TrEMBL record:
GO terms for molecular function: lipopolysaccharide binding. It is found in: Cell outer membrane. It is a lipid-anchor. Together with LptD, is involved in the assembly of lipopolysaccharide (LPS) at the surface of the outer membrane. Required for the proper assembly of LptD. Binds LPS and may serve as the LPS recognition site at the outer membrane. Pfam families: LptE. It comes from Vitreoscilla filiformis. Component of the lipopolysaccharide transport and assembly complex. Interacts with LptD. The gene is lptE. This is LPS-assembly lipoprotein LptE. The keyword GTP-binding does not apply. One of its GO terms (biological process) is Gram-negative-bacterium-type cell outer membrane assembly. PANTHER family: LPS-ASSEMBLY LIPOPROTEIN LPTE (PTHR38098:SF1).
Length: 178
């Protein structure tokens, strides 16, 4: 075996030992990937979304499959009332010639959580995601695709945040009063 092959074999062995050490240390510290929230609610009403709202679709996709989504509060255990669902696209930077160089993308969701009877669980709350996107006229189609992907990612992140809020309220409602 020549020197080069021995060095390659040694590097492979060191990488293997290193990855095993990292895996063992992560397993030993209790590390787990984030799990979806375990919601107590089984029937959730989504009120106030516009027809075919991408945010409503992201929220429906984020909910576990065993939860029924309703359009009316009747029969629901919790009601998510959307006060504002907006997507903003503004120019963040431009050249002296007026060409756009950077866009700012914002997804905003204002909501409140109530019981079907109208008891407030979470008062008016705003969740917002902002991303900057470089822009070039010569790459307009690619940048449009990138913008769509970023907007989808921001909506998914807001939906996950809302599910964590639902999980927290469901846990708080299970705590017996002192």
């Amino acid at each position: 075996m020549n020197v080069r092959a021995a060095c390659v074999a040694r590097r492979r062995w060191l990488r293997h030992v290193g990855s095993c050490a990292v895996g063992a240390s992560l397993a030993g510290c209790g590390f787990r990937l984030r799990q979806p929230p375990n919601l107590v609610y089984r029937r959730i009403a989504l009120i106030g979304f516009e027809a075919r709202s991408p945010m409503a679709e992201a929220l429906r996709a984020a909910l576990p499959a065993d939860i029924a989504v309703q359009d009316t509060p009747a029969g629901a255990e919790v009601v998510i009332t959307v006060l504002q669902d907006r997507y903003y696209r503004t120019v963040a930077a431009s050249t002296t010639a007026g060409q756009v160089r950077e866009l700012q993308l914002r997804v905003l969701l204002r909501y409140r959580l109530t019981t079907p009877e109208g008891h407030m669980l979470v008062s008016d709350t705003q969740l917002e995601q902002t991303r900057n996107l470089s822009y070039s006229e010569s790459w307009a189609l690619a940048k449009s695709t990138e913008e769509t992907a970023l907007a989808r990612e921001m909506r998914n992140d807001i939906a996950a945040q809302l599910l964590r809020v639902l999980d927290t309220t469901s846990r708080q409602s299970q705590i017996p009063p002192p």
